[in-house]
Fold these 4 entries.
Entry 1:
Amino acid sequence: MMDAIDVAVASGARQAEACGVMGIDRRTLQRWRARESGEDLRAGPKTEPRNKLSPSERRTVIEIVNSPKYRDLSPNQIVPLLADQGIYVASESTIYRVLHQEGQVKHRETSRAPQKRHRPVELEATGPNQVWSWDITYLRSPIRGEFFRLYMVMDVWSRKTVGWEVHDHEDADLAALLIEHACAREGIRRNQLTIHSDNGAPMKGATLLATLQNLGVATSFSRPRVSNDNPFSEALFRTVKYRPEFPSGAFESIETARSWVESFVHWYNTEHLHSAIRYVTPEQRHNGESEEILRRRDAIYEAARERHPDRWSGQTRNWEPIRIVYLNPEPDVPAKNSAA
């Protein structure tokens, strides 16, 4: 069994999924590998549970839930109705288990069946212009109930804002132009970049997807209504709206909003010492200047410790550059550097 899992993983399958196919948990595989023999020591139950339904009771459950009166209802509705008649055949969970074993757990309504949403594929950035993240947020306008839209594109590795626009509506064509211009400024080559976004209509518009395909830019999408799948853009928008100079009310006009965002982006890229990248600016990291800055800081700290070693109980502050940044890392990957 372990050999079969190893072959599957070597062929590109995920270990957790390979274990699921073999009917074991990933931790079970880890325990087996820890033993010298590596044998399957699972014994399993030797007797049947005393509270197991008898064959006649199982038939009764199946007959009731498939009867014309109850066949359109869920076990959660059937059990109370039976109780009102003084009847108890099994609990909701037992009925669900019996139906599952009989292959009768199906979506019975005319509405769309629930869909399983898989986590986005893990993205890894080891330098600038490898992984970008973008999103749209609202800015209050002078008209009650209407908003300006702030489009922002950021580099996940450096945290630099590589593109932004403010418009009065959301549109895939506007997003396509924004990203096309950002790619031109950054000199993006084909198959160099992956851009991540949520599942909004502008993000999946035909014009934008065609533009990205023409540019040779790969796409990645969050799960519907899961903001944590796009943490870098969400963190950037939080920084935008919690700046002291961010208006407490509405922007007077779209020109005012654009002027404010322009000053914010300049501050964020060139002055803001970002905590997630060792307190250098996104511009310094994006342009390759940060390593020399961090090296000088480390040298200053080492010299300070040599002058007064009694003031240092351990190592000096960690000024080592952050080499890898993950977007939506797998659960077994360390969470470091995975948030903005």
Entry 2:
Amino acid sequence: MRPALEVADIFRRHGDAFRNTQRGHLSQTQRRVMTAIEACRTARLGGHAERCEDCGEVRIAYNSCRNRHCPKCQGLARAQWLEKRRCDLLPVQYFHVVFTMPACLAAIALQNKVVVYDILFKAAADAVRIIGADPKYLGAETGMVSILHTWGQTLTHHPHLHCLVPGGGLGPNGRWVACRSNFFLPVHVLSRLYRRRFLEKMQLAFDAGKLGFFGDLVSLRDPTAFAGAIASVHRSDWVVYVKRPFAGAQQVLDYLARYTHRVAIANGRLLSCAHGSVRFRWKDYRTRRQNKVMSLDAGEFIRRFLLHVLPRGFRRIRHFGFLANIGRKAKLAQIRTALGAPAPPLPAAPVDYREHYAAVTGHRLDICPCCGGRMIDIGIWSPAPSTRGPAQRCDTS
């Protein structure tokens, strides 16, 4: 059922005014995201006509934009991804590890998304890999799935990684080395190594001229100023925390379903868009009364939403260690042999897109809304002519 209010509705009502006021400041990718969300499941993208075999009801099913930032287009993509990952699950403990970064580095990341987000992934993976390989702690090759989130509950910029880590690793003798019960790796050691690796990579990126600084950060172009900023965050504690292990494979999948294909805000959190303001629910984890309501100017809401648009082609879900794409199948088979665990059944090949959607999401697309009969295709609905000109180029990347 369609929510009463969607991000697309806000974009359609206030998007043109926002584009006019932010002319020259929006990237081409951000403009494309706005256009895609506005057009999603409307006549602008076309679709197909369907008729019920029982009652004769006819409806138009419009196409989705399939943009990864669209709140309406993540259900099938998430379900398909989960179906593939189900084959990678092992009968071991799994831990949820979160890596964050200080606010001053988050500001640099906002102006250098590709470089700094990539450093975030690599520094976190290095920390888990190096400490896991140390015989003092585990002495094995670890594996990890990392998922980038860049937002907080109020849509502010808060880049961090959610990582799913099996509780153990592949030992040098080919055996599975399990970590201690309910304990993965020491958090304080993990945090310090992560901080060091992150700052080393930041300095290397600066020395190579890969970082740009604009606006309030322009002073960091000076090497002395940048070195001072790095030194200041090196003295602070970085937040890395490990949550309690999951109870089983299904809980792991439920976790992945919540985190993998999220966007900055779900349509279900929106309350109203009236008189130029947007109201939405958010959780304040610092207080007992967590559920609160925030009101933002529509332009500010759109600006915050677009903060979290990722550069084109950037991979926000990555695999490391024995879960990396190279050699994953062979290493997982080796681990299952060591554990005496059977290989998981392979997913059946999809025959029809409706059947595939129903199989991976649990929802059917071919049910008549009037009588519950079966809807069948009767023709293609061509896209409506576009009334918007080509996206304008801008100076920012």
Entry 3:
Amino acid sequence: MIAGLDAPSGGQILIDGQDVTHRGPAERNVSMVFQSYALFPHMNVLQNVGYGLSVSGVSQAETTRRAQAAMDSVGLAGYDQRLPSELSGGQQQRVAVARSLVLEPSVLLFDEPLSNLDARLRRSMREEIRTLQQRLKLTVAYVTHDQSEALAVSDQIVVMDAGLIAQAGTPQQLYEDPHSEFVAGFMGEAMLFAGMADALGRVQVGPLTLQPQRTVAPGAVKVAVRPEAWQVVAGGVTPAGGTLDGTLLKTAYLGSLQELTLATPLGEIFVVSPDVQRPWRVGDTLRLSLAQAGVSVVAA
């Protein structure tokens, strides 16, 4: 709808303070980077980047100058004569970004631009997109299903559920203070547990007691707990909020982290521990407590 490719059923779309709701795609000064990049295979990089200018009647000399400047801004200087088939996935993505930037748009749209790249390249490209956005002071609307990607590149995140806004806010607000079960589950690997809030604002989850960050009304609640919020308690230590015993079912070493799956009275719990030196053994009984960070209370 922002690009003008679909008509809204209601409301307005404003760009630079102008109502563009009923304008066509060519009248909005909006550029889009597609998921598949949509590069012309028979054109070289320079021709791909300058295509929008050339069909808009811009002179050949000006098109070349602006296209090369856009290529420089995304690290493609010297790639003028390469064909898309001669480029890596990351380089093709940069061509698509340069082709959008050369039009000097008011809004730049990204449609899951990193989904075709491997994990390492995804991380480096999302950092480049963020740096580019900050340097050029662009307004960017970025669609992704990857929560870590959304957290890394955004100033504001809008979580959509069935076409409606479930919650909007900064990355930190959505991660640390989700307002619904859906948002809590979507923003990271939160597990939800039934709890009960008392008149003093404390929440009981099985044998554990916690003090939520937000005031909650007495009664049934849902508690969203992220894997990193669980802490394995050493013997002889009893945290103020109590402990939960569990039997270690599965363990996976990830270099800087250890993933643990435990059977507990609250069901199976997934835990991420930074203690990679400990000899974790399946069948061991572990005691868990909850940290303040990574725990949210939402409506039941």
Entry 4:
Amino acid sequence: MGPLGAGAKALAAYRQMTQDSAYQHPIPYADFDTDPYEAILLPGGHAPGMRQYLDSTVLQNKVLEFWRQGKLVGAICHGILVLTRTIDPQTGRSILYGHKVTALPLSLDRSNYLLSSRLLRRGVLTYSCYVEEEVRACLERSEDFSQGPSILAPYVVSDGNLITSRWSGDAALFSEGFAEALEHHT
């Protein structure tokens, strides 16, 4: 647990999830067929071990398949980096170009780094730039990025088949919005 860790209820849910056969036998990205699915949800996380997920070109190609098929695509926290790095070969741009999004705000990303530096004696910064900086760089216009009214108020941005959210504090609202969009999308 620790000062930045999950609570008891979340840990219990995690332990239960890890007992599921689907969790214990994941499908490799290369073997994953997008056709039977109506949506993809890209969770976040910021530990250096996340790089294999956030940088995976195989996963980015699968995300592009979902995107081209007009299926629902959702990302929260660092998960948006998968979308940011998913380049449409037809345009040479990120699939986020021309869309409105939100993501982990620079202020929260910096605060997390400073807090983890102090509490854990090492800062947790997955990449050399912050999430908001990388996301903004791939957008058509700077105003396509929204930080939301307050980090304390749960916030989600929906733009067509795309749903994005900033951090774990938005997770409940994001989950509800994603489930509702999926219900109406199919």
